[in-house]
Structures are given as structure tokens and as C-alpha cells.
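Q: Give me a protein?
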Amino acid sequence: MFFRGSRYESISETSLVARDGRTIRYRRMRFVPRSASPPRLFVKVEAGDRPDRLAFRTIGDPEQFWRLCDLNLVRRPIDLVPQPSDATAIASKPIAIPAPTGGG
């Protein structure tokens, strides 16, 4: 259901039986882990940035936008970047960038 590298990949699955007898499978709650290491750097978000582009520019993988969300304690990825209505207020907000993973 979730792709390799997804933030939900390691979350255990469980199920419940509904009143009508159907079995409903779901993932348990995912809690944002505390960062084991401090951010390696901060970048300023630019007007027009999207979470996937920001992740590609800073981490090198657009599908890792969720790592930016976790480190910056943002639930919705779109909240990482300024919206047209508030671009001037948020455009200079620095975003923490996580250290590389996997060692080496």
C-alpha cells in the first residue's frame, strides 16, 4: 500500500471488524519522531516553491518532502511553502534541512 521510503512504511498494520462483519485494515497512528541529530542547514523558502521541489533542491529526492515536514513539525506539506495569498509573510521563513541518512 505504501511505497518503499514512505513515512508510513514502518508503521504496523492492524484491523478491526465492523458491525456488518467486514474487516477493516489500517495503519496505526504515526507519531513524528524527535530528530536524533540537529538540522544540517537552513534554507529560505522562495515564492513559488512546492514541497516536492524544495525536497529535491535540498535533499535530492522529491518524494522525501515528509522528512522536511517532520523536522519542521509541519503536518501538511503545503504548509512548508508560501501560498500566493501570504507569500510576503512567509517567503523569508527558514526551513530546517535534515542530515543525510544511510551513513557513508
Notes: The chain has two domains: 1-31, 33-97.
